[in-house]
Amino acid sequence: MDGGGRIMRPVTQKRKPAGKVASRSGTQKGRAAATRGGQPTRRATSVAPGNRRAKSAKQFGKRGTRPPSRIVAFFENIRDGRLPGKLIFFSSVAFMSAAIVYGLAVGGHFAAAGAFVVAKVDGAVAQAGFEVSEVTVEGRDRTTRQDVLRALRVERGQSIFDVDLVAARDELMRLDWISDATVTRILPGRVHVEIVERKPYAVWQRGGALSVIDADGNPITEDGVDAYGHLPFVVGHGAARKAAAFTTMVAQWPELQARVRAYVRVGDRRWNLRLENGVDVLLPETDVDVALSELVTLDQSHRLLARDIEAIDMRLGDRFSVRLSPDAAARRNAVVEDWENRARGDDT
Predict the structure, then answer these.
(1) Is the Cβ–Cβ distance between 203 and 229 less than 8 Å?
(2) H helix runs in the chain, sequence order
(3) Same domain, 219 and 296
(4) Domain with 151 in it: what CATH number?
(5) Is the domain of 274 the same as that of 166?
(6) Per-residue pLDDT at 39
């Protein structure tokens, strides 16, 4: 209170301007006018219909344009030709390193260094007791020991771990008589070889070449064929593949098989038998077993195979024919002529 008994207002309290009060009352009047007649009316804008809003209205509430990132700035500098110094430095270092590595590789320096290290390691392993001291071979009959050792490429004293088992087996499989092989490493110093050899079945002649074959007709070797003269002798194209089946059939008649010198394949269609006395038996393409049975029966009853003949043709199923030797044919002609002369004398 002041001295006159009046209440004083606080200094901090401000009086509201009359203009704001008036504007508030004016606003209420405007709202009332906008809703005249119960119908709301649109607020008038400063932008004419069909015109675009101001640029400031579009960007209202949006962030400002960000500066480019380091990666974008890096590529923009490269595009503009402004290469960073670090890029040039590291690129030069990478290029020089690649050139040095390439030169060492092409010059064989890496291979030489690797071979040197491997040799030193192998020597150390061998000195430790793991060296080749023995080579054992199992299943060898016709293959020589020298051939086996040559295929293994193993030397006494070398590191046992330096033996290439796969390469050794591949070299063994290239030998004529070997059909399968196994190479194992037995520590500390033994290399063991197990081989399975092919079994010779017959001697095959094709053209002027002779070779030993197995039961499947696969050639084994052309060396030392004279040592297998006791085997069946097959001749002609396709004879190797069909030899086992045909010789097994002929073996059903042991007395005939004992007389056969050669089994001749003709045109890869049928067989001929060359007997020990030079007689050729011409067999048919089909029903071969029937023809062989008839041949044995004829020989047992008339000793046909022991006569002075050159060939017996049994290619026709209902008959057979015999071709005489030249001497037998001459004797036969003489006998026939004598009979004819006697017949003429009786007539006179």
Answers:
(1) yes
(2) 18-34, 55-58, 70-79, 85-106, 109-127, 145-152, 165-173, 239-250, 254-257, 288-302, 326-347
(3) yes
(4) 3.10.20.310
(5) no
(6) 53
The total domain count for the chain is 2
The answer to whether residue 96 sits within a structural domain is no
Q: Which two tokens stand for residue 237?
A: 């194209």
Q: Take residue 114 and report the two structure tokens written for it.
A: 């690797």
Determine the structural domain holding residue 171 and report its residue range.
130-197
From the list 239, 161, 172, the residue with the least C-alpha distance to 207 is 239
CA angle 317/320/321 to nearest 5° reads: 150
Provide the CATH number for the domain around residue 313. 3.40.50.11690
Cβ count within 10 A of residue 191: 21
Which pLDDT tens digit goes with each residue over 266-292? 999 999 999 999 999 999 999 999 999
Q: Which residue, 138, 173, 197, sits at the end of a domain? A: 197
pLDDT of 127 over the 60 cut: no
Q: What is the pLDDT averaged over residues 107-117? A: 55
How confident is the model over 46-93, as pLDDT tens digits? 555 555 555 544 554 555 566 667 777 766 766 666 666 666 677 777
